[in-house]
Amino acid sequence: MKSRQGYKGYVIEARSYQQQNGGFSAELWIEEHDASGVTETQFYLPDTFPTPELAIEAAVQAGRQKIDVSFERGSVVCERESPLFREMAPQPENALSIFRMIRSAH
After folding, report:
1. Residue range of the domain that includes 53
2. CA–centroid distance for 33 within its chain
3. Long-range contacts of range 75-82, CB-CB < 8 Å, 24 or more positions apart?
4. Mean of the per-residue pLDDT values for the chain?
5. What's the pTM value of the predicted model, to 2 decimals?
6. Which of 3, 35, 66, 97 is the most exposed place for a label (fewest CB within 10 A)?
7. Which residues, including other chains, have CB under 8 Å from residue 85's CB and lie 6 or more apart?
8. Count of domains in the chain?
């Protein structure tokens, strides 16, 4: 499942993925569009959610929170593979408190 929406001049794209255990994981991209092109910053939410809709909602909220606090851009920080390729291990309860980030420019 996927959602794409604008927020304060950015675009937030949120996606949910079904895990083998039956829950859903979420990740999001924050896009910045300017004269030089598009820069994407990717975040993974560490929680498992019971439905794809809840995963998307948490990812969108997390994206808004990151934009509101002027999220870090720059060096690559990759602490786990995308849940698309590997099931995420159980994580802390608060999905908005921990993020994993990858930055790429197009």
Report:
1. 2-105
2. 18
3. 75/103, 76/101, 76/102, 76/103, 77/101, 77/102, 78/102, 80/44, 82/27, 82/44
4. 75
5. 0.69
6. 35
7. none
8. 1
94 within 8 A of 30, measured Cβ to Cβ: no
What does the pLDDT look like over 59-105, one tens digit per residue?
999 999 999 988 766 433 333 444 433 333 334 344 443 344 444 44
Burial (CB count <10 Å: 0-12, 13-18, 19+), residue 82: middle
Separation between Cα atoms, residue 1 and residue 74, nearest integer Å: 28
**Which residue has tokens 């808004």?**
64
pLDDT tens digits, 7-32:
999 999 999 999 998 899 999 999 98
The residue among 47, 6, 7 whose CA lies nearest residue 27 is 47
37-49: strand order across its sheet? 2-7, 10-18, 24-34, 37-49, 100-105
